[in-house]
Design a protein that fits this description.
Length: 584
């Protein structure tokens, strides 16, 4: 009979951010990290005041008047704090010894505590802007009178639902290999490109719709994998308000299709432990090559497209019509010729010897694109411009364990190629990055699930992009039992620099030095504690980080001279995090 295994974890994370704007007074649209919304300030170019002006002068720190009607400045606080939660379930349905179905389901996925109070809801705004906050009822006329918390419901009081099915896929073992099909995690090497994001503190993940087959020569630990990925199918026949049964793809020409080949040598966990116990060197590694192509694209609907009749309230979403015979007729799509192809070779190497580990991943993205515009009118004027992507990335991790595996010494290095023609070290919130000069994009971006620190890369820049870093670290388990119970701490220093100095805000390579420290505890009451590589039972960790910005995160001399009414110096950013989790 089928057997159901249930694994997962529940977490609550409390976080405090202080001076993440680094003391810079930039407009919110162009800031590395925007000033807290409750602040009132004048931007570096003299515009302002920006933000509210409803606090008393005492609250603003500029006077003794307590009457809000007389306040001329808003509250001055560099602090942003809150907490969030997530309950993740990873059910595995074992139908037989060689067939199983696996899924991943998140409940209250990263929901900010207090973000869905009772009495708060939104409604369609009737324009392309989407939704607006609806009028409150007399039972909770103000936010101050909230009496309960409501479950998140997409389009009602939240941007997502309480339950999200992230992945579902099946695995079937045959005498010649294993077949996988469905929506599954996508991971390779260290994860700087494809990262499953299954770590206990991860926020991002790589998930792919894929049909995959793996075969190989087990005595040689050599495996070959071929995969067909459904990256983006474009518009389908599905429509709001019309029951269409099984939707289908409206066009093949706009599909983003990808083919993957992996050749890897990797010993099983049991054989690796045996070899290391004998003092042998274990070498694992391989190469992954991905080929992706797309002929046409329909990326402008909802942004620059002309709205169909009756579609304004849906934000220019294509609306289907129903014919006399009850059939659904899809709206016409606005195609742009993309003519894009890309090759992504990715090398991975791991060397293990006793308690030493060296691991590296090197990747390049080589792409040619006829047109990178999304608007049909703009694309017709700049067709076949020969846009290119030439990006390179590298990451290495070195770890040495000593004193019965209690002491961990580490050194990590990562490099993402930059592009002096692209403005900024992080992409804009909307649209493509501004590029001046040639038509080649050489700025590589790590997967955001590959975390390096607590402040600069994890939050302010959101990922390693157009920079390189050096990260020495040391950790020690003061208590480490065979039951899995442990108590320890770690410290790390991260020195970050821009690959192309012109991309940094201050036009200098040195971005900053960040210091991170943590203290953690894991209980012994977890069923997974017999495996040191897995989290089990109750786990908690307190982390502190401080970022000292350098010239690259400051102002250029020209901007510094133009600043009005303030200092051109930057401030150190700090963070304090408390993680609480239960693993099973």
């Amino acid at each position: 009979r089928p057997l159901l295994e249930l694994h997962g974890n529940y977490r609550v994370r409390a976080e405090l951010f202080y001076q993440f704007s680094l003391g810079r007074r930039d407009p919110a649209a162009s800031a590395l990290w925007a000033q807290p919304q409750g602040n009132s300030y004048t931007s570096a170019n003299g515009n302002g005041p920006l933000g509210p002006a409803t606090c008393t002068q005492d609250e603003a720190g500029v006077g003794t008047d307590t009457n809000p009607l007389n306040a001329t400045y808003g509250c001055k606080s560099g602090t942003q704090a809150g907490a969030n939660m997530r309950f993740r379930l990873d059910p595995e349905l074992h139908i037989s010894d060689n067939l199983r179905v696996i899924s991943q389901i998140d409940l209250l996925d990263n929901v900010v505590l207090g973000s869905t109070p009772g009495g708060y809801h939104v409604s369609p705004a009737g324009t392309a802007s989407g939704y607006a906050v609806a009028a409150r009822s007399g039972y909770t006329p103000t936010s101050f009178s909230t009496t309960t918390t409501a479950p998140p419901t997409s389009g009602v009081n939240s941007l997502k639902d309480s339950i999200a099915v992230k992945r579902v896929w099946a695995e079937f073992s045959t005498p010649v290999g294993e077949l996988r099909f469905g929506r599954m995690p996508n991971h390779w090497g260290l994860g700087i490109v494809d990262n499953a994001g299954d770590g206990y503190d991860d926020n991002y993940q790589s998930t792919i719709d894929r049909i995959q087959f793996t075969t190989g020569i087990k005595p040689l630990d050599l495996y070959v994998t071929g995969a067909w990925d459904f990256v983006n199918e474009g518009a389908t026949s599905d429509a709001l308000g019309i029951q269409t049964g099984q939707p289908y793809d409206l066009s093949q020409e706009d599909d983003v299709t990808e083919y993957v080949l992996q050749i890897a040598h990797k010993k099983s966990r049991e054989m690796t432990r045996l070899s290391l116990a004998k003092g042998d060197v274990v070498i694992n590694g391989g190469v992954q090559v991905k080929y992706r192509h797309q002929l046409l694209a329909d990326d402008q609907n909802g942004e620059n497209a002309t709205c169909a009749v009756g579609a304004a309230s849906l934000g220019c979403m294509p609306v289907a019509s129903t014919g006399a015979n009850g059939t659904s007729t899809a709206p016409a799509l606005s195609f742009v010729r993309t003519g894009a192809t890309s090759w992504t070779p990715d090398l991975w190497l791991q060397v293990l010897y006793k308690r030493f580990r060296f691991e590296t991943e090197a990747v390049t993205i080589q792409a040619n694109i006829d047109n990178n515009q999304t608007n049909a009118a703009s694309a017709s004027a700049t067709a076949n411009v020969g846009y290119k992507v030439r990006q390179y990335g590298l990451a290495t991790e070195i770890e040495q364990r000593l004193v019965e595996d209690k002491l961990h010494l580490g050194f990590n290095f990562g490099w993402a190629s930059g592009d002096s023609d692209i403005q900024g070290l992080s992409p804009p919130l909307y649209g493509a990055p501004s590029q001046h000069g040639d038509r080649t994009d050489s700025e590589f971006r790590f997967n955001p699930a590959y975390t390096v620190d607590l402040i600069l890369y994890r939050n302010i820049l959101s990922r390693v992009e157009g920079t390189y870093y050096f990260r020495p670290s040391v950790g020690y388990d003061f208590l480490r039992d065979v039951t899995g119970q442990k108590l320890g701490g770690s410290v790390a220093a991260i020195w970050s620099r821009a690959s192309e100095f012109l991309q940094s805000p201050g036009h200098a390579r040195d971005l900053g030095i960040e210091l991170n420290g943590s203290v953690y505890f894991q209980s012994k009451d977890g069923a997974l504690n017999d495996d040191p590589s897995k989290m089990g039972g109750f786990f908690t960790k307190i982390e502190y980080g401080v970022l000292f910005p350098m010239a690259g995160l400051g102002y250029t001399p020209t901007d510094a001279n133009a600043i009005q009414g303030g200092s051109s110096s930057t401030s150190a950013a700090q963070t304090l995090r408390w993680y609480l989790g239960a693993f099973f």
